[in-house]
């Protein structure tokens, strides 16, 4: 396949061509190299769980050596994907919690959102009267840390869900206990000779995913807001055109804000700015990629260099002095690509060491000092740039980002209720939904996947939804696709249906709202839960859906699963490796509906998927309008 047809991003197309000329291999070459992928792997019917395997299921060999059938094998593989994803998000959250425990008035990590801390402290029964804010923070951090390994009880966050939802979780036994325990239980239950029952394996997957969504991710988002500030709308730009010819270009890639927040500070350090001048640069230009990019653009307006599929291409510009990474979604290939240019590929976490990179360990205890050292390395590298190898593609789009729940609600409230105290309730949002001006809300989230054309599913689906008056919220690399294609620009209201366009105009928002990194999908679950509680209905009654058009990571599998467990229908643009078991497919796409009120829908054609979603939202609306009317009638009796 022509490599340039594998992405719809024009900058990427230009750089794929440049990579070819420079003799640099990228993911797009490797994709062509893999003529076809293993059918057993694609369907989830290959088992490598014990040393007698791999066992592959086919009509001729319907059982593995131990007798496990396709349902058991698919179910175990699925559960392990969920556990992998939950581990990644939650371990990120754990580091944030440790950092909160380190926070101090004169240290590197401070409390920036006292209000949010106090609210959480009160919710968790922590004494707040007449206490130093840092003492409160440390006690809250300690409680958060206990969520990972507490011997008794279930997630501390479950009580925030609507009562009916809590009942469902209790009845089907998916209330997550300690986070680490859920992950360990899945690893144990999927060991050879344990669980061999598809219903039970999916039930276990649901409970573990709940430890991600209703525990780890919530700790990650809340503690990050407390320490680094709750995002508020801010202006930025997106795509590789944000790189600057005359400045030291540093790209931050990965996930945890503990590192990136310090780099943002260090990039402003007068000493380093002076050094940049000395090196002949006009300054330091910081930009972000993947979820780290989302974290720092949400809080500081740092420009977005690009998404998951652009990590190699960013280096192909020849204009990047350093790519600084921490954990998750980092191509090992960056080591080879960096070698072809002057770029320093700097790894910083003992959890993600990569052969061929420059390892400069970052520790929270010495955060600013470490960050300065890392930025200095980048600045010093400016002199090694080879101008003849530089090509910065021109495209970039303006975007307004920073839509935390707090930001969305306060903005809506100001317009609808002329409320200027900036608190806000969900009422205006619900009024928009009730009246039907907005037909529904769709969270379009997740990765890029080489199985589809990069960005195509995201952009096609988002455009279709907003055209049909469905408000889109986004996180992860999906948010970056939206930003790159101008959908997070307020001007994008011209692409909306009449209802949504009016709301965008009145409230002064873009039709696709950036809600953060993938850990921040907890914000989306929170707002659906708040709306349901306000109306005294269940989360599955709200016309809201989740969509992962180009998902690829285990984290995405965990997310999709907890979103469904929360009662929110979820649509996938890439088939997960479960199709080898008819029973698994039936449970995930239908059976769960009876249990949790939501299920998965899979369709790899983005136009078809968009049509299905719009149709389903309209059906959900009928039900929504009916119960709202019933409630109104009841209250009038
Ligand atoms: Fe990774 Fe989070 Fe996926 Fe992007 S969206 S490819 S997981 S960076 Ni989370
Ligand atoms: Fe084969 Fe069973 Fe071992 Fe899996 S657990 S590799 S199916 S023998």
From TrEMBL:
- Can you cite a GO biological process for this protein? response to hydrogen peroxide
Which GO molecular function, any one, fits this protein according to its record? 4 iron, 4 sulfur cluster binding
Which InterPro entries does the protein's record reference?
Answer: CO_DH_a-bundle (IPR016101), CODH (IPR010047), HCP/CODH (IPR004137), Prismane-like_a/b-sand (IPR016099), Prismane-like_sf (IPR011254)
Domain of life of the organism encoding this protein: Bacteria
The residues that the entry says bind [Ni-4Fe-4S] cluster are 255, 291, 329, 447, 477, 518
Where [4Fe-4S] cluster 2 binds, per the record, is at 47, 50, 55, 66
Q: Does the keyword field hold Nucleotide-binding?
A: no
Residues that bind [4Fe-4S] cluster 1: 38, 46
What EC designation does it have? 1.2.7.4
Which cofactor is recorded for it?
[4Fe-4S] cluster
Q: Which reaction is recorded as catalysed by this protein?
A: CO + 2 oxidized [2Fe-2S]-[ferredoxin] + H2O = 2 reduced [2Fe-2S]-[ferredoxin] + CO2 + 2 H(+)
Q: Which residues form a coiled coil?
A: none
Q: Which keywords describe this protein according to UniProt?
A: 4Fe-4S, Iron, Iron-sulfur, Metal-binding, Nickel, Oxidoreductase
Sorted alphabetically, which Pfam families does this protein's record hold?
Answer: Prismane
Q: Does the keyword Oxidoreductase apply?
A: yes
Which protein is depicted?
Carbon monoxide dehydrogenase
- Classification lineage: Bacteria, Bacillati, Bacillota, Clostridia, Peptostreptococcales
């Amino acid at each position: 396949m022509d490599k340039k047809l594998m992405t719809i991003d024009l900058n990427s197309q230009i750089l794929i061509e440049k990579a070819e000329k420079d003799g640099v291999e990228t993911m797009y070459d490797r994709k062509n190299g893999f003529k076809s992928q293993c059918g057993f792997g694609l369907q989830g019917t290959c088992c490598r769980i014990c040393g007698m395997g791999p066992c592959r299921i086919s009509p001729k060999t319907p059982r593995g050596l131990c007798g496990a059938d396709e349902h058991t094998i698919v179910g175990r593989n699925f559960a392990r994907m969920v556990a992998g994803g939950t581990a990644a998000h939650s371990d990120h959250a754990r580091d944030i919690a440790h950092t909160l425990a380190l926070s101090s008035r004169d240290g590197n990590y401070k409390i920036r959102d006292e209000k949010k801390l106090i609210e959480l402290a009160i919710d968790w029964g922590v004494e707040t009267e007449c206490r130093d804010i840092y003492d409160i923070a440390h006690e809250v951090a300690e409680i958060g840390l206990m969520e990972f390994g507490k011997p008794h009880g279930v997630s501390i966050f479950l009580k925030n869900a609507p009562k009916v939802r809590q009942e469902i979780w209790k009845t089907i036994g998916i209330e997550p206990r300690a986070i680490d325990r859920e992950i360990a239980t899945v690893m144990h239950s999927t060991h050879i000779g344990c669980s061999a029952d598809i219903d039970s394996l999916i039930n276990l997957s649901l409970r573990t995913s709940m430890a991600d969504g209703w525990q780890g991710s919530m700790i990650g988002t809340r503690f990050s807001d407390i320490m680094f500030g709750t995002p508020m709308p801010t202006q930025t730009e997106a795509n590789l055109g944000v790189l600057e010819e005359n400045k030291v270009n540093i790209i931050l890639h990965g996930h945890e804000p503990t590192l990136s927040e310090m780099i943002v500070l260090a990039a402003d350090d007068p000493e380093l700015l002076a050094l940049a001048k000395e090196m002949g640069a006009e300054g330091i230009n910081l930009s972000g990629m993947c979820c780290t990019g989302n974290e720092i653009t949400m809080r500081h307006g740092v420009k977005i260099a690009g998404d998951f599929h652009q990590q190699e291409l960013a280096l192909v510009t020849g204009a990047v002095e350093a790519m600084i990474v921490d954990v998750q979604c980092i191509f090992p290939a960056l080591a080879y690509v960096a070698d072809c240019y002057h770029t320093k590929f700097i790894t910083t976490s003992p959890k993600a060491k990569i052969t061929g990179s420059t390892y400069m360990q970052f520790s929270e205890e010495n955060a600013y000092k470490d960050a300065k050292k890392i930025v200095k390395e980048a600045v010093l590298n400016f002199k090694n740039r080879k101008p003849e190898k530089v090509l910065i593609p021109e495209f970039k789009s303006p975007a307004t980002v920073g839509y935390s729940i707090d930001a969305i609600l306060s903005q809506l409230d100001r317009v609808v209720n002329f409320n200027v105290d900036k608190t806000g309730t969900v009422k205006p949002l619900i009024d928009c939904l009730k009246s039907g001006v907005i037909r529904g809300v769709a969270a379009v989230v997740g990765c890029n996947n080489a199985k589809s054309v990069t960005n195509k599913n995201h952009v096609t689906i988002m455009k279709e939804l907003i055209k049909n008056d469905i408000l889109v919220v986004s996180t992860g690399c999906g948010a970056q696709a939206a930003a790159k294609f101008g959908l997070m620009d307020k001007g994008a209201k011209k692409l909306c249906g009449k209802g949504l366009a009016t709301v965008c105009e009145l409230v002064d928002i873009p039709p696709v709202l950036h809600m953060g990194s993938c850990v921040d999908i907890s914000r989306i679950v929170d707002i659906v839960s708040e709306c349901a509680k306000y109306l005294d209905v269940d989360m599955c009654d709200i016309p809201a859906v989740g969509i992962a058009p180009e998902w690829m990571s285990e984290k995405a599998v965990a997310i999709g699963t907890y979103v469904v467990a929360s009662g929110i229908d979820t649509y996938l643009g890439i088939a997960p490796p479960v199709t080898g078991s008819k029973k698994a497919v039936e449970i995930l796409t239908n059976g769960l509906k009876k249990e949790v009120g939501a299920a998965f829908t899979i369709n790899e054609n983005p136009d078809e998927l968009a049509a299905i979603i719009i149709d389903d939202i309209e059906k959900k609306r009928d039900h929504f309008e009916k119960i709202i009317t019933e409630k109104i009638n009841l209250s009038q009796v």
